[in-house]
Amino acid sequence: MLNIIWVLLMIIGIGGSIALGKTDMIMNSIISSAKEAVEFAVGLIGIVSLWCGIIKILEDAGAVKWFSKIVKPIISSLFPSARKNEKAQNAIVTNFAANFLGLGNGATPSGIEAVAEMQNNIKDVCLFLVINSAGIQLLPTTVIAMRAELGASAPVDILIPTWIVSIVSMIFSLTVFVICNKLFFRKGGKV
Fold this sequence. Notes:
Blueprint: H1 2-19, H2 23-61, H3 63-78, H4 86-100, H5 104-117, H6 122-133, H7 141-149, H8 159-184
């Protein structure tokens, strides 16, 4: 549906510029926007690569397994289907760590792996997706990098508002999950 909306907006925009005789203006805008988009994306590659690399190094060095053992009681109580599944626990820890550092794209592979490992329990998958979507971010690195790339004078000044919004959204999301859980789920996570 979203693709249809984008196509309609493009057709209306281009059609309107042709009707108003502003085709040169729209072409210049398209070319300059494409150039700016590429420069912006290249600027973000560095920070995202850095943090994804750090997460991978921590994973390869065994830090994820070590931290997974520490938080195992919490993960086991939140996600019963991951209680005896070390692969699921490691994927959950990696995903939460990447989200905690504000690396949404870096968290995606481990999130997919965690969902695949817990797919037999829909309740655990739903809870994981709720926590993942509304996750608390200690350091929103991608947003800070975007603000720095776009020339913000103090790109880090969003930390406190980010923490507040993250905590409020997590509380709200978990409240909605608990309410829906009581209304829709039966014992054992089956719908």
